[in-house]
């Protein structure tokens, strides 16, 4: 009887002293979510502001690709004058070639080739827009004026090259002097610069 009482007492004592809750291993919650703390701290510690990032990326911007027809079609072209603007873009590139040619005193063959290309493009614009509202634009009339001047200058330079073989510069009948040629080339350069400015600032 005493032994039975002792065993029962020990059994009851074990139950009350050991507890009756969950006996397994709890998951490491802090380790599972540590990546969230890391991301938050990295965002907070970013060394660049929005303004600094803009400056950092500024040098990556590409120059305007006027030779790219896709860019011209989508970015530059205006609703009512899209075709006209696109045609002027081609002329601008020729004018810039002519300006470089005049500034570097390139040989007559290069000069005449560029002038011929310019005249052809301006003639196309003349035929295409002579009966349209664009014919009233300053840019349109400036191109017609420039075409005449470019043709006259190229003719003068070509004739002067032929005449100098048979007539001295000092002859009173010789109009194809270096001074006259240089004056015509300088006037053409000034007109080219004015025209480029007008075409690039077309409204």
Question: What can you see in these coordinates?
Answer:
It is a single chain. The chain is mainly alpha-helical. It is 70% helix and 0% strand. The radius of gyration is 42 Å and the shape is elongated. The termini are far apart. 12% of the residues are buried. The N terminus is likely disordered.
Cα distance spanning the termini: 116 Å
**What structural class should be given to the helix and strand makeup?**
mainly alpha
Care to count the β-strands? Answer: 0
Q: Can you tell me the overall shape?
A: elongated
Which percent band covers the strand fraction? under 5%
Figure out the total of helices: 9
Largest sheet: none
Gyration radius, to the nearest Å?
Answer: 42 Å
Helix-strand sequence: HHHHHHHHH
Low-confidence stretches: 2-8, 10-22, 42-46, 77-81
Mean pLDDT: 76
The amount of helix comes to: 55-70%
Task: Throw out a few tags for this protein.
203 residues, mainly alpha, elongated
Explain briefly what this protein structure is.
This protein has 203 residues and is mainly α. It has helices at 2-18, 29-32, 34-44, 50-58, 69-76, 82-103, 108-129, 138-163, 178-200. Helix 5 (69-76) packs across helix 6, helix 7 (108-129) runs antiparallel to helix 8 and helix 8 (138-163) runs antiparallel to helix 9.
